């Protein structure tokens, strides 16, 4: 019976994934909002028991499913970014300035603020408070499609200089910060096992904060270069899959990059993103990148909507049973106060900068749209598997509430806010942004 119910839910999610984008194109309502709502309604019906809804009892399944969703999304995000980033070319790092500030200033401040609220305000043990901060820190590449770049521009349409600064910043931040949040999740696990001690810091900084980041990036670059060479430049015609348009290489790339990154003891999430960026840098204007991105995007959409439908069912079947005023305050505080303020501080949003940087309105929008999603579920499931005491019902309820609140708040505000801040742009950029938005709405995506 359990497997039959899973098929029913999966079939419903796939059907909704197909029809929802066209139905919702005229409304400020996102597909994730509808899927969560439909799931909640299903949870209120006399649906037979049997779905694996208990988070701790089904922790391993939740971990692996959400892990897959995130790495598929990261591959799509990496392929979608047009702006180059070359490790040995410092000049290519400067156009990514807003992204680095959100990652290196905004995210640590956000982690610290949430962890402090969890420890001081909610009375959590230090390990659980650190996990809450780390799990809720990264913006999500899965649920943030409405505020991200639409996809790679290739062929005659490839013009890096015309890239939307706001969407680029939110996209690149979501692509990188999933891996950079992992050190803080590991810190929570270490504290849970060994207790809070200054003796943890050298090994944590040296290996978890620096070493695993470097290993993940290097692994991703190596896999990306190898696959790009085979796809575009191999002497064997049968191996030059780009010429045949065999876009399923996207799946091989994300699985290979993640596996190599993990085997090398690095962060697999960073390896996948680095692989996608490296592959994108080869034959940058080739239409093959758009074909690969479409495969990753479609798979991401199907997996995401399935997870959201199950999440909605779980919400009305006990997942929020341990939610209290403390969890609500932390979740809403993160979305409405902590992320906007830390993001604004990182971007110095109260100061305007000349073009081609972001306008003041775009900075505030980038600070506000810190979408939380599937990645937070993965981090919590992973940590709960490493230290059982970190899988408490209160943490599951609080993280789930924060994700649903983010889906609702950011889903409703994304279209009107981005349309409003875009008015401050020059006419050519505004026309291009309008065209991209029209194409986004016409495409069968979330």
From TrEMBL:
Keywords: Antiport, Ion transport, Membrane, Transmembrane, Transmembrane helix, Transport
Record's compositionally biased regions (Basic and acidic residues): 425-440
Region (Disordered): 425-446
Chief place where the protein resides: membrane
One Pfam family named in its UniProt record: Na_H_Exchanger
UniProt KW Transmembrane keyword: yes
Residues passing through the membrane, by range: 6-24, 31-48, 60-81, 102-122, 180-201, 213-232, 252-279, 302-321, 327-352, 364-382, 394-419
Cation/H+ exchanger transmembrane domain segment(s): 15-419
Cell compartment(s), UniProt: Cell membrane
InterPro entries: Cation/H_exchanger_TM
Superkingdom in the source lineage: Bacteria
A GO molecular-function annotation: antiporter activity
GO CC list: plasma membrane
GO-annotated biological processes: proton transmembrane transport
Membrane-topology annotation of the record: Multi-pass membrane protein
PANTHER family: CNH1P (PTHR32507:SF8), NA(+)/H(+) ANTIPORTER 1 (PTHR32507)
Protein name, as recorded: Sodium:proton antiporter
């Amino acid at each position: 019976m359990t497997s039959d119910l899973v098929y029913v839910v999966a079939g419903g999610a796939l059907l909704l994934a197909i029809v929802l984008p066209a139905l919702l194109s005229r409304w400020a309502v996102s597909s994730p909002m509808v899927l969560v709502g439909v799931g909640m309604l299903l949870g209120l019906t006399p649906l037979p028991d049997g779905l694996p809804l208990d988070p701790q009892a089904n922790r391993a399944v939740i971990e692996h499913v959400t892990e897959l969703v995130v790495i598929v999304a990261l591959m799509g995000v990496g392929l979608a970014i047009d702006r180059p980033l070359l490790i040995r070319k410092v000049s290519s790092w400067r156009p990514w300035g807003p992204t680095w500030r959100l990652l290196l200033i905004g995210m640590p401040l956000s982690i610290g603020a949430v962890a402090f609220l969890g420890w001081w305000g909610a009375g959590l043990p230090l390990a659980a408070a650190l996990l809450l901060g780390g799990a809720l820190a990264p913006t999500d590449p899965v649920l943030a499609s409405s505020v991200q770049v639409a996809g790679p521009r290739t062929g005659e349409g490839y013009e890096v200089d015309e890239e939307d600064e706001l969407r680029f910043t939110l996209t690149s931040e979501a692509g990188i910060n999933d891996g950079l949040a992992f050190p803080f999740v590991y810190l929570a696990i270490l504290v849970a096992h060994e207790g809070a001690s200054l003796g943890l810091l050298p090994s944590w900084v040296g290996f978890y904060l620096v070493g695993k980041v470097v290993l993940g990036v290097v692994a991703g670059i190596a896999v990306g270069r190898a696959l790009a060479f085979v796809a575009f430049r191999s002497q064997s015609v049968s191996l030059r899959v780009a010429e045949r348009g065999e876009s399923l290489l996207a799946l091989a790339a994300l699985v290979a990059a993640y596996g190599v990154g993990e085997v090398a003891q690095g962060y697999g999430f960073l390896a996948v993103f680095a692989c996608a960026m490296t592959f994108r840098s080869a034959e940058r204007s080739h239409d093959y990148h758009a074909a690969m991105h479409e495969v990753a995007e479609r798979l991401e959409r199907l997996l995401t909507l399935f997870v959201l439908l199950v999440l909605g069912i779980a919400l009305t079947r006990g997942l929020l049973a341990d939610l209290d005023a403390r969890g609500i305050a932390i979740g809403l505080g993160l979305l409405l106060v902590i992320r906007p303020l830390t993001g604004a501080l990182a971007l110095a949003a109260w100061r305007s900068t000349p073009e081609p940087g972001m306008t003041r309105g775009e900075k505030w929008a980038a600070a506000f749209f810190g979408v939380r999603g599937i990645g937070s579920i993965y981090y919590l499931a992973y940590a709960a598997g490493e230290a059982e005491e970190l899988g408490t019902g209160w943490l599951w309820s609080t993280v789930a509430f924060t994700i649903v609140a983010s889906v609702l708040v950011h889903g409703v505000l994304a279209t009107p806010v981005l349309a409003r801040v875009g008015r401050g742009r020059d006419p050519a950029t505004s026309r291009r942004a309008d065209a991209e938005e029209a194409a986004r709405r016409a495409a069968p995506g979330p």
